[in-house]
Records
---
Amino acid sequence: MSLFLLTGIATLDIVNTVDHYPAEDEELRANAQRLVPGGNALNSARALAAIGHRVELLAQLADDPSALMIRDTLQAEAVRHQHCPCIHGVTPTSYVTLNAANGSRTIVHYRDLPELSAAHFKAVAVEQFDWLHFEGRNPGETLKMLRHARRLLRDQPISIEIEKSRPGLDALLPMADVLIFSRAYVVSMGYTNAPELLAAMRPRAPRATLVCAWGTSGAWALPVGGHDAMHAPAGPAQAVDTLGAGDAFNAGLIAALATGATLSEALHQASNLASRKVGGYGFAHLAGQGNR
């Protein structure tokens, strides 16, 4: 199996499950509460490990009890994390309201921990990995990481997730072999659908495969040199927990591409993995199913 390095953020997710999303000023009792590791890169790493790949996470960790829980989970799920720097501080926390009626999740995020630095990234022998994946956050430091990686890599692909619009993000786009855009990013840029966004991004990243997932509508991809976006429908699913569905999609996509799938095959496999993820809590239920 391929060896992946995922660089991004690790958080504590406090997930409250409710019968319905509360109205403003409503007092509502939660049916259940879970404290679980979160963050895009961390979630994708857990999904990759669950479907049988070797994976390492590189993220800034605090020195508090929440970070210890995160480390314990990563250890139990065979996600390598030995290069994660540990500094004094509080783990970034996402407060998640999970609507049991439809599986939707609403997130309020708080962080007071510095982002991962390029210096920490440079301490890792990146040339040992078959695929490098980055969250498109903290663009200044991420650009330094990408330039460093490009100097050392032979032909290993680099993928970048573009989830939110951030100053300096455009400089990252030409550095990627695969760019994965979120629906939230599409909307923030003033577009109404994935194919429009992918076509608009093509001049900014002419040598990258462009991908965008759109929840229950499926996902679209624009190959290098192509002008028409291909589409894969979302797989059938009873929505239980949509938290991390996009991260599972990202994991399924890069896993498929790394193991020789065509772009069309990878898009379908990623959509199916995301659909299977929303059918259960967390990622453990993906174990043993492979990326199909």
---
Amino acid sequence: VMGVHNVLCISGDNARIGPTPTSNTNILDMDAIQMLWILRRMRDEGIYLDGRKMKSSPRLFLGAAASPFASEPKFQALREQKKVHAGAQFLQTNLIYDPDRLDLWLEELYKRDILDKVYILAGVTPIRSRRMAQYLHHTIPGVTLPEHILERFEEAREDDFEELGVEIALEIIEKIKDKQGIHGLHLMSVGWEAIVPRLIEEAGLKQS
């Protein structure tokens, strides 16, 4: 549709009006795993959810979100395994601030024999302020900041917050970009788009 082939299947806001099988679809009626299964079936078998044959199958590259730190790594890996089996070809992770802890999740994916069956994009967001650091740590599900990062923001001057955020983001990128199973980065600037080119350049991600 409209040349769109890459689809990220995630939960979102309530879908108050939708197509078949009902006119009013609650967000809880379908999760990402079910959505992946439906889209994979449309792509591979040319069949709609209600069983109708499609005139032509869409060309889709299917993805899903992953939250390595939302619970114990083995439980999160189980959910990721279900998504891959349902059709996910790539995973975009939640924000990563603890690269060492990420290894535990990657190890669980390896144990489930899916680490080499999916492309993983690690989520990285530069922190612009002490308040943002505290907000991410205490408010966003599945996101935790190591104590040493929180301490660095506590000790820094307000004028140095943005530069510190860039420094930490570059440290994280350096630690995760070459990990087995990580195929790329998802740089989420959160209202700070101007910093992305610098991160790409200084992290050595720019292709020559």
